Amino acid sequence: MEISGKTKICGIIGDPVEHTLSPAMHNAAFNNLKLDFIYVAFRVKTNELENAIMGVRTLGIHGLNVTMPHKNVVVDYLDEIDPTAKFIAAVNTILNDNGKLIGFNTDGVGALKALRENGVALNGKKLLLLGAGGAANAIAFHAAQEVEELVILNRTAQKAKKLAELLGRKLNKKIKTNSLSASRIREELRDSDILVNATSIGMHPKVDQSPVHPEWLKPSLCVMDIVYNPIVTRLAKDAKSKGAKVISGIEMLIYQGAASFEIWTNHPAPIKTMRKAVLNKLSETGATH
Ligand code: ATR
């Protein structure tokens, strides 16, 4: 791809960003559609975030992804926040719309699309969500609008309760919460249709850990683990061996990326190309980070 004076620049800001899969995913997509865009990674330290956003304005950078640790704080430096990102109080995508910086959050949309596109319907279902951090907030916001029943379990039960109260008020829906104890997970799993792990349990290097005892998994369950490093987590392995349907965290990564791509380019994202680029990159790095 030729870089010209008109090439639009997109990128990711975070710290660390060395191992991000986003440049491979987005550049492959830009190339595939022959769009005059390029995507790079910028390491931005916490105390330099405000300056970095000023840089986006002065340099006319077209779009950004925002990752740890800036997703929450960046909200203060933008001109407009879309309603979903406002509710979640976290931005993972910025569009520079002729000088106006607009913040979005595509994590929840990405997770739900990953489920839907992999054949999992949400309507009328019970979804058990493990975790109440940033990703879980985004997923809960979207899932609560579609499923029949949402239950949120988190190590810090108070965080799950706060999230459920906020969501419950907004959507006029009762959401059950509790602590992430073995007995709670077991009890809630009995009549759950979908299980989403939005905790970091099982992430490299603690690859032998799983939030769920294998005995409680069942063939009728659909399991999505948002952890994608390793590609196949302990939970995913256990679920598969019990005959459950398993959706990899890679799918959420791809669909949240696809939603950002569409915000920046106004073109439908080439999902297959993006998936291939991510999987190639992961196999190059041994899929451990
Ligand atoms: P992200 O943006 O990826 O969601 P996060 O906001 O730091 O990251 O959230 C991490 C989630 O994993 C939280 O739900 C966290 O539980 P707490 O709210 O109690 O911190 C959960 N988590 C991380 N390590 C965990 C562990 N060892 N056991 C149980 N839950 C854990």
Key traits:
289 residues; alpha/beta; binds 2'-monophosphoadenosine-5'-diphosphate
Instruction: Report the mean per-residue pLDDT as an integer.
Output: 96
Put simply, the count of helices is 10
Helix fraction, binned, reads 25-40%
Stretches with pLDDT under 50, minimum 5 residues: none
Shape: globular
Name the structural class.
Answer: alpha/beta
Concise account of the structure shown:
With 289 residues, the chain is an alpha/beta fold.
Structural account:
The chain is α/β, with parallel strands linked by helices. It contains ten helices and twelve strands. It has a six-stranded mixed sheet. The protein has a six-stranded parallel sheet with strand order 9-8-7-10-11-12, with helices on both faces. β7, α5 and β8 form a beta-alpha-beta unit. α1 runs antiparallel to α10, α4 crosses α9 and α9 crosses α10. The longest helix has 17 residues. The protein is globular, with a radius of gyration of 19 Å. The model has no long low-confidence stretch (mean pLDDT 96). It binds 2'-monophosphoadenosine-5'-diphosphate (ATR). The site of 2'-monophosphoadenosine-5'-diphosphate has 15 residues, from α5.
Secondary structure layout:
Elements: E1 8-14, H1 22-32, E2 37-43, H2 49-59, E3 63-66, E4 80-81, H3 83-88, E5 93-97, E6 100-104, H4 107-117, E7 126-130, H5 134-143, E8 149-154, H6 157-171, E9 176-179, H7 182-189, E10 194-197, E11 222-225, H8 234-241, E12 245-247, H9 249-265, H10 271-284
Parallel strand pairs: 1-2, 1-3, 4-6, 7-8, 7-10, 8-9, 10-11, 11-12
Antiparallel strand pairs: 3-5, 5-6
The chain binds 2'-monophosphoadenosine-5'-diphosphate.
2'-monophosphoadenosine-5'-diphosphate (ATR) binds at residues 131-136, 154-156, 159, 180, 198-201.
